[in-house]
Amino acid sequence: MVKSIKKYRFLFEELVKRDFKKKYKRTVLGMGWSLLSPLLSLLIMRIVFTTFFGRNTPHYTIYLFSGLLIFSFYNGATKSGMSAMMENVGIISKVKVPKELFVVAKNVQDLISFLITMVVYFLLAILDKIEFHWNFFTLILPVISLVMLNIGVGMILAALNIFFRDIRYLYDIFIRLLRYVSAIFYTIDRFPPLGQRLFMLNPIYVHIRYFRMVVLEGMVPSLGYHGYMFLWSVSMLLLGCLIFKKSSPKFLYYL
Amino acid sequence: MKVLAVKKVSILYKVGDFRNIGLKEYVMRKLTHNYKVIDFWAVRNVSFTLEEGDFLGIIGTNGAGKSTLLKAISGVMEPTRGVIKHRGRIAALLELGAGFDGSLTVRENAYLRGAILGYSRQFMDKNIDSIIEFAGLQGYEDRMFRHLSSGMKARLAFSISSLVKPDILILDEVLAVGDATYRKKCEAKMKEIMEQGAVTILVSHSLPMVRKLSNKVLWLHKGRMVGFTDDVQGICDLYRAFTDGDRDALERAHELYGESLTQRR
Which residues on chain A place their C-beta less than 8 Å from a C-beta of chain B? Predict the structure, then answer.
């Protein structure tokens, strides 16, 4: 993958540029939209859930935002990875280019939006009187891990989407379920210890928890935690590459 | 010198119920044993070689395997059997809309297209002006692509593919658009490309165009090679007769041109 990006660097850059321009040119707000959209959902959830969960949770806004930030990154990036093949049918069926390029280019796009939102996240954290700490720099690790996870899952979905056109709708249902088991707006203390452990089987929750530990609890997760997190993302990335590579010669029959 | 050699190429293609279905439908069809996939040879045992400056016209009725063969030549698809060897860079003239994006400007689209065709940024920087000029789109560089007429879009597409000096240029049924003046310009351009020693492959249902431009013709019928010859007018006459309803023309063409060029070499 890295090799083909190097060789096709010009194409890769042009694809990223195209996706970027396409996303922002059409909207009046332009780049502002990628800030406004998560902020609005944050606002809504904040209003709705504060009465239920927020009373006993310190810094509830940031608690909520941590979950939303990570989840919407995963959600957006995997979905755009999924559509990457179908959007470029005209190119794929006529020119010999490494197909994974399209998935990765889309992910770069989502990463940029994510990083912009992350700036707002930190600003809100300061407003919420959370003290800045050098620990915050470790957050780069879950971001790297998430990018790998997103690309891996995106590749699997992109391949599946070519074979079955309704994967989009099925994945939407899956995402809805995942949203509820990612502890975005509630805390998991109310569950018995076993239930709390089950949450760790959800890689999205693993990343959200990392952010909360660093930002809200001012601590850095253990080495084992890192290992577990990267075990998820690296194996999803490898699995994604493998599935994509195995199935990509067949794509042409389906396009 | 040989630029392209296609040796005994066969391509197995799959068609059937699997296209454009969802997972739900797939499962239902599997359960009810209503799921059919047909393998068929879209291209069967085709061989030919092209040399510098050759202009090959590929003719044949619908479903003859022309586009599939082109896919194999451009490397998008691997031939199931046989080998394809080529020298240099291949530029395929894409379908009109493919790889162009309506909301980008003409210049941005030109760069994207150039990148897809495998050229470097430096190359595009150097050639962008002549690309725009050849397409006759001066003054439109920063217009949105979707505001162009379809003729203008086609001109831009051809301009990018041809001005980048490919070794093999693949034209799949694309020159039918554009006004008469532009078509003349294209023909002149293609002559120029041929003189530079590049190989051009044209798939067209427009027989006059094949007659005018090609120096070799490949006739495909249902995936098989009817003939490959440099007697352009002769094979075109027979093809014309065949499409007019003379079924024997196919046999005659095969007898005349079926082995001629391949044996001579």
Answer: 8, 10-11, 13-15, 17-18, 21-22, 25-26, 88-97, 163-167, 170, 249, 252-254
Q: Is the dihedral of CA B45, B85, A248, B96 positive or negative?
A: negative
From chain B, the residues in CB contact with A168 under 8 A are none
Give how far B259 is from chain A: nearest CA, Å: 30
Quote the pLDDT of residue B264. 41
| pLDDT in the model for residue B263 | 44
- Alpha helices by DSSP H, chain B: 23-31, 66-74, 106-116, 121-135, 150-163, 180-195, 207-213, 232-243, 248-257, 260-264
Nearest chain B CA: its distance from A75 CA (Å): 21
pLDDT of residue B262: 47
User: Is residue B91 classed as helix, strand or coil in its secondary structure?
Assistant: strand
Quick one: pLDDT at residue B96? 56
A11 CB neighbours in chain B (<8 A) are: 115-116, 118
> Does the domain made of B1-87+199-265 have the CATH classification 3.90.1140.10?
no
Q: Where are the domains of chain B?
A: 1-87+199-265, 89-166
Say if the Cβ atoms of B112 and A25 lie within 8 Å: no
Report pLDDT digits (tens) over B203-215: 887 888 888 888 8
Minimum mean pLDDT range among A9-13, A110-114, A149-153, B164-168: B164-168
Interface of B with A in 119-158 (CB under 8 A): 119-121, 124
Sheet hosting strand B199-203, strand order edge to edge: B90-93, B168-172, B199-203, B55-59, B216-221, B224-229
| Per-residue pLDDT at B265 | 38
Q: DSSP string of A107-155?
A: HHHHHHHHHHHHHHHHHHHHHTTPPP-GGGGGGHHHHHHHHHHHHHHHH
Query: B135, B162 in Cβ contact below 8 A?
Result: no
pLDDT above 60: residue B152: yes
pLDDT surpassing 60 at residue A15 = yes
Higher-confidence residue of A251 and B177: namely A251
Report the candidate in A30, A217, A72, A87 with the shortest Cα–Cα distance to residue B99: A87
Give the CA-trace dihedral at A53, A58, A60, A64, to 10 degrees.
-100
DSSP symbol at A222: P
Contact B4, B166 (CB under 8 A): no
Identify the CATH class of B89-166. Answer: mainly alpha
